[in-house]
Structure prediction request, 37 residues.
Amino acid sequence: MLYHNQALYPIKIEHFNVSPIILIFVLCQIQTTQTNL
Prediction:
């Protein structure tokens, strides 16, 4: 069980590292569309 948790842990870290980048990208897209309007 411990080995299984350690194997999944890096995948969770990568997921949390990618998520903020996607959120920032979406926020930038929303801001650019508002300024264009």
